[in-house]
Structure formats: structure tokens, C-alpha cells
Fold this protein.
Amino acid sequence: MGKSQAYRDDNERAKAHAYANNGALPNPYETGTRPHRLWGKWRTFYLQMKSQFDELAQAYGEFRPTEPQ
């Protein structure tokens, strides 16, 4: 059985917020809620990917059209 629609909705909202704010704190959701945990998950993922792309840009030269502030 797959994830519930409520879970998928919470996941998409949390992901969209974490990416829209470039992984910046604070977490907008109430502590202990599912959206709070999902936001933390997507923030961590966003920051890890940003770090990897920064390392690639350092090694091979900047390849991203614009660097988010």
C-alpha cells in the first residue's frame, strides 16, 4: 500500500518551502508534526546537494547560470 494523499501533500509542501527558501531556517511547521520532520528531511537534502554542486563548480568551474543568494 502506498503513501496516503495527506502524506504526499505534506511532503510536497515541505519540499517546496525548503527549496523556495534555499534551506534557510526557521522551520515553519510546529515541532513534532509530520510536516516539521519532512521539512527537515528536504532541508538536509537541499543543503547536501548544494554542497556537492559547490564542490563541482570549484573543481570544474562555475556551470550554473546563476548562483542563488
In short: The helical segments are 5-20, 34-60. DSSP finds two helices and no strands in the chain.
